[in-house]
Amino acid sequence: MKLGFIGCGNMASAMIGGIIAKGLYKAEDIIVSDALEASLQKARTELKVNTTSDNKEVVAKAEIIVLSVKPQFYEEVIEEINKEVKEEQLVITIAPGKTLKWLDETFGKPMKLIRCMPNTPALVGEGITGVCANENVTEEELNKAGEILNCFGSYEVVPEHLMDVVVSVSGSAPAYVFMFIEAMADAAVSDGMPRAQAYKFAAQAVLGSAKMVLETGKHPGELKDMVCSPAGTTIEAVRVLEEKGFRSSVIEAMKACAEKSRSL
Ligand SMILES: NC(=O)c1ccc[n+]([C@@H]2O[C@H](COP(=O)([O-])OP(=O)(O)OC[C@H]3O[C@@H](n4cnc5c(N)ncnc54)[C@H](OP(=O)(O)O)[C@@H]3O)[C@@H](O)[C@H]2O)c1
Fold first, then answer.
1. Per-domain boundaries in the chain
2. In this model, does residue 142 exceed pLDDT 80?
3. 158 alpha carbon – ligand 1 mean position (Å)
């Protein structure tokens, strides 16, 4: 058994789905534990991985361990597995606010720690993960973790002080984007478009625009200017968005998000 997950909820399932689909690990090489029998049942039937209700069994059987419980359960889980976990095992964390220093102190021994912040588009292979590691992790081990993260999107190594920014710019960002898509669809529905069609237009507009930013390398402002013809329809929408504080709302919301992450 090579890869273990403690906690098999939304994020672990998204990660495992990508890892198996990309063929990096076979389902039989993965073991997961969870407090909830229903989650284990789902992991057995949908992901076909090995399951256990005992977190220590994951530690005993896996070379790499992903701590995929909510941040508030980190302390009790680390306490529970601490005797079994060995210093040569790689521990990957995905919780906001749980710093390498906090993890180091909570384990109380020189562990190899990789701190990650993924996001839910991992479910469709389009996640992005911010990563940092402590001094006990070799470059080879970091690359090994990177291979796992590449299975459900891409990753960027960032200095640890930027991890709370990663939470706001990608970890939590799908929620704001979904709100934006929903609002655009509401407007289209109010102007007479059927609901399902409105979601399709709005979502595809977001997907295509994001691809343009990533693939053209052009500044987002330049791409915006390209859509705004003089005295046209788009600049009218831009005028109202500015008047209603659109950009400032996004900036303030994201700063609140990063601050919350710092406080966890
Ligand atoms: N979802 C996101 O968008 C997102 C994005 C980036 C990072 N993350 C991070 O990913 C981590 C997991 O999030 P998630 O959304 O996957 O949460 P989740 O769906 O609640 O999954 C966590 C699972 O762990 C189980 N669990 C709780 N305590 C446990 C214990 N002591 N031992 C074993 N299993 C235990 C939970 O069971 P119960 O239901 O019984 O509690 C649940 O099934 C979190 O740290 C979160 O902050 C999430």
1. 3-160, 173-263
2. yes
3. 23
